[in-house]
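Hi everyone, sorry if this is the wrong subforum. Our group has a chain we'd like a structural model of before ordering constructs, and none of us has done structure prediction before. Sequence below.
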Amino acid sequence: MSAMRLLVLGAVRQHGRAHGYMVRNDLEFWGAHEWSNAKPGSIYHALKQMAKQGLLFAHDVAPSTAGGPPRTEYELTDKGEEVFFALLREALSSWNPKLDVLSAGVGFIVDLPREEAIALLRQRLKGLEDWHDTVTEAYVPAEGAESIGHIAEIMELWLSAVDSGTAWTRALIERLEGGAYVMAGEGEPFRAVLPEGVENPYGTVPHPGDAAAGGPRRGE
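Answer:
Right subforum, don't worry. Here is the predicted structure as tokens:
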């Protein structure tokens, strides 16, 4: 599972309709260009591909009165909505997703009802605990990892990552059970998006696909 699809679908969904530069701006505001493959060219490509796949509807938008280039605005289709939630649930419930996938899932966790989010995280927690129990029973010798050579450091690395992931997941579950954050159905959730026209303090350098006015070229 790639984080890109979840990130782009979720970013478009937050706006209702969004053009490529808005999606890029939001993801860079999250720092996603640092912890995922959400680079400018990849974002624009993903938008076009998912429109071809029927996950996004591409709206033709007239050129701006200020002389800017025409833009294409994207909106989730019913299929896109289904895929977004399927990816989100998978990202939060899997015990071993790539870190960028889990990060993307956490970014959109407030789009789920509280009880469902907690249940998904409990699935993740069980997977982590089960894996830890299986590995420590079968592979970690009682006399210590060094007794089987340096290759044991691989298992030590994974066990450390799993222990850290377990502690983080338990803490997030406790925060959600304690009422943290506004979840779906509880009111207006927090949206970490930048209004159009607001300069992004975390933005990357201009991309060749960006127009001088700060937007993508035609069709992006």
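For your construct planning: The chain is about 55% helix and 5% strand. The chain has a mean pLDDT of 85.
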